[in-house]
TrEMBL record:
Protein name per Swiss-Prot or TrEMBL: Uncharacterized protein
Family matches, as InterPro entries: ARM-like, ARM-type_fold
Pfam families noted in UniProt: HEAT_2
Length: 181
């Protein structure tokens, strides 16, 4: 099964660069495990004292295991963090995880965070929303995405505009299926 969970967690925490290759190699190894031991360790990290540990826990949970076997247990943990966390980096990671999980139960949390004062958090919301809107698109989620497309931060607005384009593509696919069976 590879390196022990604790060893991989320590390796990820040792790389202080949030985008560091050592960190993400360890995270990828943890995510591939997809087992209860890894889920439990990641969930525990989400309640840790340091933001670096909470970010790591969220990053692991966002793509844990093939077919995301722990989604039902992960969504409540992430929704709790979305509602209670103050750290921008943790909130950003929560939003990216929501996008990866593609579970519509996360939509209310993402809509709420789409109005956050920090552009980094709004960017995470712009990433997550297109993955959660559903078909047909949830009106409140689509309104949040449209608002983000007009955001003062160019990166947020660009990502949200892309999300709208992708969502429009889904609507075109549905129309084609109905018109050309």
């Amino acid at each position: 099964m590879g390196a022990p969970v604790d060893h991989l967690i320590q390796a990820a925490l040792a790389d202080e660069d949030p985008d560091g290759p050592s960190r993400w190699q360890a995270i990828a190894a943890l995510q591939q495990r997809g087992d209860l031991e890894t889920f439990t360790a990641a969930r525990r990290l989400c309640a840790a004292a340091t933001s670096a540990e909470r970010v790591l826990g969220v990053d692991i949970l966002g793509e844990l295991g093939r077919d995301r076997p722990f989604t039902d247990k992960t969504i409540p943990v992430l929704r709790y963090l979305a509602a209670s966390e103050d750290d921008t980096r943790v909130l950003y990671s929560v939003l990216i995880a929501f996008g990866h999980l593609r579970d519509p139960r996360a939509l209310p949390s993402v809509i709420e965070l789409s109005t956050h004062a920090e552009a980094t958090v709004r960017y995470g919301a712009a990433y997550a929303l297109p993955n959660l809107l559903g078909r047909p698109a949830d009106p409140a989620g689509l309104a949040a995405l449209r608002r983000l497309a007009r955001d003062q931060d160019e990166d947020v607005a660009d990502w949200a505009s892309l999300g709208i384009s992708l969502t429009s593509g889904h609507a075109d696919d549905v129309r084609r299926q109905v018109l050309d069976p």
